[in-house]
Amino acid sequence: MTQVTDAPSLDDPWTVPTTYWHRLEDGRVQCDVCPRACRLHEGQRGLCFVRGRVADQVVLTSYGRSSGFCVDPVEKKPLNHFLPGTPVLSFGTAGCMTSGTSSSRP
Ligand code: SF4
After folding, report:
1. What's this model's pTM, rounded to 2 decimal places?
2. How many domains does the chain have?
């Protein structure tokens, strides 16, 4: 976990409360979104850096913020035999939940 000086704020329209977390007996909150299971004190961000603890809850700071758009052939996607030969719009946000540990690429 990372302590940051530019802590996210719920006043930021791109920062939204989340629901998949729980409170621990030691006062930290644990994010339950991915296997990293970050346990956060107030003001800390998770390993993905896009979730963190603000106002005693886990928030997402990348809501609605795309980091890239691309039109790809559908064959690049994990969609078996779905409309072969057609393009598909891909987009994503910043923040990696797995640090590449489960990537399908070598
Ligand atoms: S890396 Fe991010 S999504 Fe995963 S548990 Fe930590 S804060 Fe949650």
Report:
1. 0.74
2. 2
